[in-house]
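As the work plan foresaw, the team has encoded backbone shapes as discrete tokens. One protein thus recorded appears below exactly as we store it.

:::
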Amino acid sequence: MGIGKKLFPREGGDPDWAPAFAGEQGSEEASVPKVFSPKASYVDRGVLMQGQGMTEPRIAVLLPCYNEEAAIAQTIAGFRDALPGATIYVYDNNSADRTIEVARAAGAVVRTERIQGKGAVVRRMFADIDADIYVMADGDATYDAASAPNLVARVLDEQLDMVVGSRISQVQESYRRGHRFGNALLTGMLARLFGRSFTDILSGYRVFSRRFVKSFPSLSAGFEIETEISVHALELKMPIGEVETPYYARPEGSESKLSTYGDGWRILRTIMTLYRIERPLWFFGAIGSVFGLLALILGIPLVLTYIEIHQVPRFPTAILITGLGIFAALNVFTGLILDTVVRGRREVRRLAYLAYPAPGI
């Protein structure tokens, strides 16, 4: 019995999600429920699917960790309560404390990644773990595990590829002013460069579909991984969403690994690098325009002088203008060539993405 045909009708199907099973049951008194609301919770969906002998979506909770002994047990317990059918994976990234022992005692599947950096851990998790729905959070107990069923339900109900848990601070200490300002600045920059964005691009609380995870070519090394994930979704024009979730302060004894200026600079550099890679015509075109404008400003007086006396008295300026014009042309043609290459690469990524079915289908 196909889950997609029975629980998640496609567009153009029965209105208001009514009788998904009517064709096979044939009577109003049938024991199978006739209406499946898109607003039903993940738990309700699981009960219904189990009652009909269907397979629930395989959900994996991914928790990258580095020295989270003080918070990891609380994090695992929260997600265990919220998603009782999920498998919880803790990927330790060279912790010097007892993170591994505590996580294993709490019932998580514990694995390690030796290459330092959150980006390396996410890349390993996405490559190793096979599931239908992936819930990614941090192991510091700052994200609200109780919101996970709502995020998962949103992915399944609307066939989204990513839902971001947009952080709403519950206490002042949970979200420092410098981080808040940097997040707003970087989010606004991403919206200007790529046309649309999220309200919280740096949130580490996300739910992904299988086709997102298996088509994402992760290249980042550190905390800029969230920016790369956001740009990947925007570039392939994936169906995405946001849900506001509480954001708490770390438990006592747990320390943040973020550097306001260091990580902020790395994220800014990542945005500019991704813009150069994904929008080469605009990037190199802007540089070419600057060289062209300088050549024009310097050239106008030279042309006026030549019209007046029929001579070019300032040869160094004329040579500089020629060089600026050549640089301008080179940048424009570089942008045109790379734009064609990027288009082909984007088509390949899109085909890899389409090789997997949408969630809930």
Observations:
- The longest helix spans residues 315-354.
- The radius of gyration is 26 Å.
- Strands lie at 59-65, 87-92, 109-112, 133-136, 162-169, 206-209, 240-247.
